[in-house]
Each structure stands twice: as C-alpha cells, then as structure tokens.
Design brief:
The chain contains 14 helices and no strands. With 301 residues, it is mainly alpha-helical.
C-alpha cells in the first residue's frame, strides 16, 4: 500500500460540501447511568409537585365524607361529577371568575405594553442618567408592598377610586420586573437592526413596533404568564380595595365560600380546582414561550 493509499484510508468520509460530518460521541456506561439518574430524580420531583393537585382534583369528585378518611382513599367510590354543577348554585362563581378575568387581562395587557415600551427606552435610547435611573427603578423591586400600601390606599381613596376595579388595574399596570425582563431581552438584539432602520427613516416608535416587538415574542409571553398568574392569585389587593360583593375576585369569593361551607370539603376542593384550572391552562399553552423567554432574557449578545 502506498503513502497515498494510507492517507486516503485514514481520512474520514466527507460530505458533498467538503465538510467533515459531525458524529455523535457514544455515551459511556457511567454517563448513561448519570442520565438515567437525572431523569429518575426529575420524575420523582414531578410526582411530589403534582401529587397535591391530583389529590385536590380527585377529592372534588368525592362525597363529602370521603375526602378525609383514614387510611387515605385516592379514588372516589362513586364519581360525583355534579359537584362542578352544584357549586355554581352554592356560590357566585360566575361573578368571581368574570371579575378575576377582567382584572387579570387588563393588568397583563397594560404591564406588557408599559414594560416593553419602557424597556425599549432604557435599552435603545441614550440619554443622561439612563443607567442610574434604571438601577433606581429596578431597586424598587426590593421594597415590599406592605411598606407603602397604607399611603397608597389613602391616595387612591382621596380621588374616589376605592372599591373600584380601576384601583387594582392602576396599582399593577406598571411593574419594574417587566421592564427588567424585557430590557434584558432587548439587549440581546443586535444594535445594527435599529441603526439600519433609522437610516431608512423609521421612527423610534416604528423600530419598537415593527422590529423589537416581533422579535421579543418569547419574553412577552413569559412576562404575560407571570403577570397573569400573579394578578389571578392576588388576595391582599382585592381584600383592601374591593369591598362590594359584586366586585370580588375568585380569591376573595373562595375565602368567603370556605367560611360558609367550612365542613363541605368536596365543595371547597371543587372551588379550588376551578380557581387553579385557568392558570394551569395558560401555563400549558404558553410554556414553550415561557421557558424560551426566561432563558433568552438572561443572555447577553
């Protein structure tokens, strides 16, 4: 065999483009064992996290005397599907859910709009004191709401906004976390895109609306899911500002319902499932964008 034959036989096969194809390196037994152990740990954690929710759902379909039994019985003897119909007559669920949906959608929309717009200013527009102002604004996240909720309540009450939905919407329409999340994502977008648009005569609002927003769908989805979840689960805000029963959210309504039916555990579990179900649906639908938005918002381009 000649030297040319030896060189040819030792050279790996190449693709038609002339590049050497990458081949996956086979996993060693130890690596396979570690992968299996990771999946096993994730499966155990998932079961531990989902177990209380599964018990709540199954308990909502039991008779009242079957919810707390010793030993625990996971599945009902007879499935009580009518529990989900009876709760609508026992409680004002339609009003509570409608109020919660209105507040959650309004607050989420406003936070996405204001957060993304302010983040564009901090990320793409240069002005004196920009970095210091951003740090001060983000620093408000560390201030607990309990520190200023009384002055805030007095201020809104003085202008007649107490006991109105508008009070909750105005309180949560702006959020420093949303600005921080969106700015981190905007910083990963190349500046050349904005410069090219400015050369073509596009205004700053046009750059924000036509370039930045379409590219930031994952971060917008992540911010929307987080804001929607926080607003839906908020208890203290509605408790302080919403006193009329026709304005109560699902959290306030369930608290009252539990006080009235403190011994009807199956009805309580049914109401709890109805309060959690919309959040679960929103997260399942948007989990792909949520994970992608959280991951990319922490990167620097």
């Amino acid at each position: 065999m000649t030297d040319l034959d030896l060189r040819t036989s030792s050279t790996p096969a190449t693709s038609p483009t002339g590049t050497t194809p990458l081949r996956a390196k086979p996993l060693r037994p130890l690596e396979k064992g570690l992968h299996a152990l990771r999946y096993l740990m994730l499966a155990i954690i998932s079961v531990v996290v989902l177990l209380p929710f599964a018990w709540m759902v199954l308990s909502s379909l039991k008779r009242n005397n079957e919810v707390f039994t010793a030993p625990i019985t996971w599945f009902p003897q007879e499935w009580q599907w009518h529990n989900y119909l009876d709760i609508w007559t026992q409680a004002d669920m339609s009003t509570w859910l409608m109020n919660t949906i209105i507040l959650s959608v309004a607050v989420t929309t406003l936070q996405v709009v204001t957060g993304s717009f302010a983040a564009y200013g901090f990320s793409r527009i240069r002005f004196p004191g920009r970095d210091i102002l951003f740090l001060v604004y983000i620093g408000t996240i560390a201030v607990p709401w309990q520190a200023y909720m009384i002055p805030q309540f007095k201020m809104l009450s003085s202008v007649g906004l107490s006991d109105t939905r508008l009070s909750i919407i105005l309180l949560q329409a702006f959020g420093a976390f949303g600005v921080f999340l969106m700015k981190q994502f905007y910083d990963t977008i190349p500046e050349e895109l904005s410069e090219s648009a400015r050369i073509d005569g596009v205004s700053e609002f046009g750059i924000y609306w036509r370039i930045m927003l379409p590219l930031s769908v994952p971060s917008i989805a992540a911010l929307a899911i987080i804001t929607f979840t926080n607003t839906w689960n908020d208890y203290m805000g509605p408790l302080i500002y919403l006193r009329s029963p026709d304005l109560w959210t699902i959290q306030l309504g369930l608290k009252t319902f539990i006080g009235q039916y403190n011994a009807d555990y199956s009805a309580i579990m049914t109401g709890s499932v109805l309060s959690v179900l919309p959040i679960a649906i929103v997260f399942v639908v948007g989990q792909k964008y949520f994970v992608q938005g959280i991951a990319t918002s922490g990167l620097k381009g």
